[in-house]
Structure formats: structure tokens, C-alpha cells
Amino acid sequence: MTLSAETQITDLTINDHACLTFGEPEELLDLTAAFVRDGLAEGRRVIWLAEEPERRLAELRRRGVIAPSATVNGQMEVLACQDGLLEGQAFELEHAMGWLRDQMAYTTGEGFAGLRVALDMSWALRPVAGIEQLPAFEEEIAAALEGASAAVLCQYDRERFDPVTLASVSGFHTRSVAAATYHHDALLRICRQYAPPGVRLAGQLDRAAEGALGQALSEAIRVDGDITVNMAELSFIDLYCARMIIDAARSLPRSRVVVLRCSPAISARFVLLGATALPGIRLVTVNDG
């Protein structure tokens, strides 16, 4: 079984100008959390320009990737896109690039090891004046990163951006980022989860995907520490696959915990199978919506 060939988020280094195309909010949150976590671990300053910054910051905290001190000392910031890229309701190339250069200079002056910036490009889907400058903006970012101690992750929703727009900006990026994917079709997606480490399942899972599920679980349990099987976006799981997940959890030493993150309907199936009575398994029910 072959994983997707794109660069993994954990492979990114300084000077990278990477393009992340995502299809689900959970995918965006997971990959960005890993980008943030690795940057902070390297002593870098990290900024995420995003929709609903307070909710994004709360999500990073829930995943355990940022300590309170990181926001206090200015090492980590989550800001609204209009705080950096937009001037009112207009996009101005020089304004946006001035913001980025100012952040690079401030990072150096404060003694951080470097800068990581994640840019959620969803703002470009709104009726914003100057949007035709988007390809030029990506080109300017690439030029600004040459020789600098900075990396930028541009985030595009592949379900909402048209193929022409994506093609117009792709050539200015040094890397194309995606989650390691074990299975992906119209009904089911099985991929690696990066923050916290584990597996993410979305759609409908039955025995037909046994091989992909087995590989994903096997690779997840090889990492150190606790793992999460994120089933928040799973609408169906058959008994065979649920038992596979429980058996994988049973195979781990008791010092490690497997978190099963589920919707109420999926959680009920694991309760029926006795998962909550097993040491090392923690069932977390996520409210629908």
C-alpha cells in the first residue's frame, strides 16, 4: 500500500514556502497544529493568520501544542487575516508584504531562532478588492524567504478554491503538503494524524478497508507515547473494524493510552464492545456539530 507522495508537514524546514491544500476543517487544524508544535519546539516564533482566531487558538490548546507561556512572551500568536494581509476590505500587495517583512525583522530583533507563518487563504474567497494580486503575493513571499530564517505555510481549501486559482499559485511554492493517506475515496478517508499523533478516520468504515486501517494503526502504535484515533467525522463503523481498533489498543503497554475520539453514535458502539472497561483506552465523546 502506497502513501500519498506529497511532503509531510513534519518534513518542513526553514526557508520553505509550502502549499497546504485541505478538504476538511479537521485536516487543516491537525496539520497546522503540527506546524505550530514543531516551530515552537525549535525555538521559533509562530504566527497563524486565520478565520476565527480565538477558536483556532483554543483548538491548539486542546491539542496540547502550545503552553500558556508561548502566548504571553509573544512566541505564538493567532491573528485575524485583516490584522496582517488586508487593509480594510482591500488586499494591497505592498501592505501584506510589509506586514510579513516587519514580522521577520521583529522576530530577529527579539532573538527567536526564526519565524514560522501559517496563512489561511480563505479570506481570498470573499469579495475583496485587489484579489487579482494573489499570484504576485505568492511570488513575493518566495522571494522574501530566500536566505531568511523563516518559513510560510499557505493554506488553501481545495473544495472551495477553483483549479485555475490553485494552479496559478502552485508554482511559487517549494513544497506541496498533505497528510499521509492510507485510503481515500468518496466514502472513506483514513490518514495519519499529527497533533496529537495517531490516525484520523472520516466517512463510513467497514471491513472492505481492513488493510488500510491495519496499516494506519500499525504505524501509529510504533510512535512513542499516547495515540489518538480521531473518529469525530466518522458516521459509521462496523463491528469488525471497531474490534480491530480495540485490539490494537490492547497490544500496547499499560503505560500508554489510546484516546478514541468519537461522535455520540460511534462512541455508543465502542461502549457496547466494552472499550471503556479496558485499561489504556480513554473514550472521548465529541458533540455533533
Give the gist of this structure.
With 289 residues, the chain is of the alpha/beta class. The chain has helices at 25-41, 53-62, 68-72, 93-109, 134-145, 163-170, 210-221, 239-250, 264-272, and strands spanning 17-22, 45-50, 76-80, 86-87, 90-91, 115-120, 150-157, 175-177, 181-184, 188-194, 197-205, 227-237, 258-262, 281-285. Strand 4 (86-87) and strand 5 (90-91) form a beta hairpin.
Could you explain the architecture of this structure?
β13 (258-262), α9 (264-272) and β14 (281-285) form a beta-alpha-beta unit. Residues 1-5 have low confidence and may be disordered. This protein folds into 2 domains: 9-177, P-loop containing nucleotide triphosphate hydrolases (Rossmann fold); 181-285, 2-Layer Sandwich (Transcription Regulator spoIIAA). The strands form 3 sheets. The chain has a 6-stranded parallel sheet, sandwiched between helices. It has a 6-stranded mixed sheet with strand order 9-10-11-12-13-14, with helices on both faces. It has 289 residues and is an alpha/beta fold. α4 packs parallel to α5 (134-145) and α7 packs parallel to α8. The chain contains 9 helices and 14 strands.
**Largest sheet, spatial ordering of strands:** 3-2-6-7-1-8
- How many strands? 14
- CATH third-level topology of the largest domain: Rossmann fold
Name given to the CATH homologous superfamily of the largest domain? P-loop containing nucleotide triphosphate hydrolases
Number of domains: 2
Question: Biggest β-sheet, characterized?
Answer: 6 strands, parallel
Secondary-structure class = alpha/beta
Could you give the distance between the termini? 33 Å
Low-confidence stretches: 1-5
Task: Please tell me the CATH architecture of the largest domain by its name.
Answer: 3-Layer(aba) Sandwich
The best one-word shape is: globular
Q: Specify the number of helices.
A: 9
Query: Could you tell me the strand content as a percent range?
Result: 25-35%
Q: Percent of residues in helical segments?
A: 25-40%
What oligomeric state best describes the polypeptide chains here? single chain
The sequence of SSEs as H and E is EHEHHEEEHEHEHEEEEHEHEHE
* CATH C-level category of the largest domain: Alpha Beta
Radius of gyration equals 20 Å
Give the overall average pLDDT.
93
